[in-house]
Amino acid sequence: MDIFSAHDVDRVGPAWQPVLAAQLREHGLANFAGTTDRAALITVARQFMTIRTHRDAAPDGVTEITDLGTAAAGYAAFTDSELIPHTDGSSMPDPPGLLLLTCIQPAAHGGATLVADGAAIAATLAAHYPAALRSLSAPKAAFFGAADGYLGAVFAPAGPGRMRIRLRLDDLVRFSADAAAAIPSLRTAISRHLKTLRLGPGDSVLLSNTRWLHGRSPFDGHRMVLRVLGDPLPAARVLPGFLVPDAPAQRSTGHPEDGTAADLTRQIA
Ligand SMILES: [Fe+2]
User: What are the tens digits of pLDDT across the range 214-233?
Assistant: First the structure.
């Protein structure tokens, strides 16, 4: 199933909000067109999330992602450089649950949005690199951020039968020896599942920040993307993370409270 074409949500349809929420619950990602300015972006965001403020955001919660020529660590978003797929807010104890990106001005060349499904990454690791998945799931696998960052796992439990991903691969992360040895396998798994979204003016992507990694390719010229971070509204019923790979819950009932899946979560943790 190609969620990047067949499931594009038609915002002119009467039921686009429930359709988008259902797509978020199932796939953790939805893309749609027709958000052409900041006010429209906020209107859309408030229908799915409680907006979080952010270091780089304006008081309305919107961050303008554009090339400011910034060279400081942690500000790579504000350059024209590549952004390695990552989790936003990885140095926070509880990263935002949802990320909404809207393209206002695509770059003349490059600047595609890159996304990779943590569920698919974890499944590949479980199938082909199980030792790497165990190392990356250790409670002290990585320290994310600067001095006031977060010590935790790349793959962590996220409720019964579920796990979540937390990742950055830039200068602001340090891994344990075991986790560092697992990074080449992790990069291989990410590459295998990397998707390219070429967002035009008004195109948006709304994704689960605890399931999907996001990044971008380098670009030339002016590019402007607006970002809003937040936590899903209870009515959206978007659970954090994704089902533990190869859990019996996936093969049988799919019910997230399956006891054996919870046991698997504990084993991986
Ligand atoms: Fe980001």
Answer: 999 999 999 999 999 999 99
